[in-house]
């Protein structure tokens, strides 16, 4: 596996890429001599790129633009060279990657993935596509934790995408919730966003329901821990799932918040999240910023 990853790293650094014709999967029926061409969606390409971190599949690297790839993970150098340098650090038994959820919103694909990547981690990744190739990447990572007080893991729960016709409506509901409640503290509006206490929570430290959230916030307050969200930088969605990318502070430290919500009948029904402390400028390996999204 180590050799495979090193070979993949070399391909990455050299900027190997596939042509548009190579971005499709072809199968030939020997009897009819008919050729079936299946074009991969951006979502499929994203899943393949993530899996290539584990398998060393060089074909997937062709889905990344070799000359125009901007990296927003502050611990990784820019471009394909930075990606290749990261792969060279793989342990002898390689990395492990299991994508749990994947969603597509215009030119963006966003995923939730379980990694064994310098230790077990949970991550959200966002990829932006141009002309069928990945040109930009953002992410948030956190250490994998034990089940929360309600017995939920950080990734379990439904993965089924529904209500595609309600995507924009659901994005508005979630964005309004984050701004009203988490940014501006208008707690008198909180009941507008939930169906009573029916709320499934996957944060490892918080129990289900608004009651669980209230208990967690009370416990943090007693410890002098304050959670602040100042700016919502991006809202992405597909059907009943919406991801928000926000910036603020947690316990006084600059923090990046990625929150995934499932909306059901106009109310927030389920929540997954990853909080990551933002690296200081002196420790960053690129200057692209954690939250710089194109307009």
Strand content: 25-35%
If you average the pLDDT, what whole number results?
Answer: 89
Shape: globular
Number of strands: 12
The computed structural class is alpha+beta
Radius of gyration, in angstroms, nearest whole number: 20 Å
Strand order of the largest sheet: 3-7-6-5-4
The span between the termini is 40 Å
Work out the helix count.
5
Q: What level of helicity do the residues show?
A: 10-25%
Biggest sheet features: 5 strands, mixed
Offer a few descriptive terms.
5 helices, 5-stranded mixed sheet, 295 residues, disordered N terminus, alpha+beta
Structural overview:
This protein is of the alpha+beta class and 295 residues long. The chain has helices spanning 2-13, 42-55, 79-87, 167-183, 209-222, and strands at residues 24-28, 35-39, 70-71, 96-105, 108-116, 120-130, 133-143, 200-201, 227-238, 241-250, 253-264, 267-277. The strands form three sheets. Strands 3-7-6-5-4 form a five-stranded mixed beta sheet, covered by helices on one side. Helix 1 (2-13) runs antiparallel to helix 3 (79-87). Residues 1-28 have low confidence and may be disordered.
A few lines on this structure:
The chain is an alpha+beta fold and 295 residues long. The chain has helices at residues 2-13, 42-55, 79-87, 167-183, 209-222; strands at residues 24-28, 35-39, 70-71, 96-105, 108-116, 120-130, 133-143, 200-201, 227-238, 241-250, 253-264, 267-277.
Set out the fold topology.
Elements: H1 2-13, E1 24-28, E2 35-39, H2 42-55, E3 70-71, H3 79-87, E4 96-105, E5 108-116, E6 120-130, E7 133-143, H4 167-183, E8 200-201, H5 209-222, E9 227-238, E10 241-250, E11 253-264, E12 267-277
Parallel strand pairs: 3-7, 8-12
Antiparallel strand pairs: 1-2, 4-5, 5-6, 6-7, 9-10, 10-11, 11-12
Helix pairs in contact: 1-3
